[in-house]
Amino acid sequence: MSKNNLSAVILTFNEELHIKRCIESLLPIVDHVYVLDSYSTDSTLDIVSRYDNVSVLKNKFVNHAAQFNHALDSFNINSEWVIRVDADEYIDEDLRVYLKESLCKLPQSISGVYLNRHITFMNKLLRHGGMSDYWILRLWRNGFGRCEQRWMDEHIVLSGGDTIKADGKLIDDNLNTLSWWAHKHVDYSTREAIDIITTELKEQRSSFEAKLFGAKSQRTRLLKNFYNSVPLFIRPFFYFFYRYLFLGGFLDGKQGFLWCFFQGFWYRMMVDAKVFEIKLSAKDGIDVKNVIKNKYGFDI
Length: 300
Prior knowledge:
Blueprint: E1 6-12, H1 19-26, E2 32-37, H2 44-48, E3 54-58, H3 64-74, E4 81-84, E5 89-91, H4 93-101, E6 110-121, E7 124-125, E8 134-141, E9 145-147, E10 156-158, E11 162-173, H5 178-200, H6 216-227, H7 235-246, H8 253-282, H9 288-296
Parallel strand pairs: 1-2, 1-4, 2-3, 6-11
Antiparallel strand pairs: 4-8, 5-11, 6-7, 6-8, 9-10
Protein name: Glycosyltransferase 2-like domain-containing protein
Pfam families: Glycos_transf_2
Domain Glycosyltransferase 2-like: 7-95
């Protein structure tokens, strides 16, 4: 693979546990790494500064979609391909070989590449409960990809061209504690509740296509659209049993149960509770946008 063929974009905020692992998994096959930091207060930027072929900018964080598009607009990325990698992710050897040997051979008709994302939870790579073979668009020809405007669960959308699936894995392995994970998902639940409310108000339309026979991320979006049509507080129960029993989450042992419970039930119930809270406050004659801004500090 020739130089200037592939660049990586990483968003960071207090990622001292992960950023070295992430960057060093990419360095053998990328020409440059672009880091957009949200004013980290730990040693993230000190670690990043050790690498010669890494550029850094800072920008106040609003949401992942806006932050990532800001990175695309602000960095002078001149490689043919761009890959998005989260700071707590890394690529395995099979994916590294694919990117090194096969990316430059793709026909011009291909403008996007789906990567197979796997999640590690409490030191266990999850293989069941819907967590394996999660194909997500993370690699695209420069200029063809943008992040859809959402508060949560944002995806890269292509402006044209065909897609292909890559060999290997993109592994999400967050090394923080369960308390940190829970705190992060409390924040995520607010953002997802805002997405649900704004979609119901027809003030947010996604450019990401939900498809039954598309990639798994597209099928997941279709399932989420159906899920959101089910009444509040009932749907988390169905979703937990669907993930844990029907999709075999129990086969991942204790970690499988905890993941399905926290991510598939607790988090979903938190989202529903916040949707309920926002709508309850709006019944008092307060505009929904004002409720969201006053209660959660988000200006939509």
